[in-house]
Amino acid sequence: MALIEVQGLSKFYGLHAAVRDVSFRINEGEIVGLLGLNGAGKSTILKILGTFLLPSAGNASMGGYSVEEGADQVRELIGYLPDRPPLYDEMRVVPYLRYVAQLKNVAKNVIDERVSDVLRKTNLEDVAWQPLGELSHGFRQRVGIAQALIHDPRIIILDEPINGLDPVQIVEMRDLILSLRGKHTVILSSHILSEITRTCDRILIIDKGRLVAEGHESDLNKAFVRSMRIVAEIRGDFSESEFRKISGVQSVVVAQGTQPECKIVTIESDGDIRAEVARVVVSSGAELLELGRDGDGLESIFMNLVRSSKAKSATGGEANG
After folding, report:
1. What structural domains does the chain harbor?
2. What is the pLDDT of residues 256-268, one digit of tens each?
3. In this structure, what is the dihedral angle of CA atoms 126, 130, 136, 138, given to the nearest 10 degrees?
4. Contact present, 120 and 57 (Cβ < 8 Å)
5. Dist. CA 171–CA 168, nearest whole Å
6. Dihedrals φ, ψ of 198, to 5°?
């Protein structure tokens, strides 16, 4: 049985559908990302899973407990970081974490041990006695995760954990999330594609309140990418016709490269043929300066799905959230 099960979940505000008929399952130990534009419904889904909102229809369970009938049991299982960390600016980090530990029924004799553990995991030891109101945004996000971890929950819910962080803080937050893999089940939301692919085992793409696709990036590529563009920069002589002989090649275009003796070869194919392209270049005696993919991957999948959803919405007149 999956640790998190969502079936037909919907949330309406009047006639406005913030979430509509969403279903998915998450197994123990997975890191799963909700990917979508701002306003797609990601936070609403997480708030329902965190028992902060009741669904209008459908059901969701965490560890076998319903988020409606078993809300108290669900809260014991989860650690939750909302899009704005629940911090009290006048408190210092350690007293705040002790206070949260008491709220979450951590045994008194292990509270100090739990506080020390989450300070270490979140790299907060250097600011342990600073007032929360004086911390940078990055440290406040870390304290938010620390309070979510303080009772060692099975499930961790993170709503836009890297929002507003600088590049260095994003890398640190990514490492922190990855360190949770296996021991905790993590579901997080983001609108930043690169971070979803780097941290998550699976991706759930949400658009206008609906789940429009799910899977690992490679699975989504196979399902939704109909062609792939391979770009190579080559120095020296080669035969364009040899590229056309590679299985799956649809077209080959050769253009002038960055230097007079270089050429840029753009190949449209129905799969990833980079290895075959490299072999052709090497066998011709030319030099392969650069080889990569262009215009494929999660970004193009995401944009294609969003465009498709917009087109359906325009023809169907459906209310979205």
Report:
1. 4-222 (3.40.50.300), 226-294 (3.30.70.1340)
2. 988 888 999 999 8
3. 50
4. no
5. 5
6. -80, -20
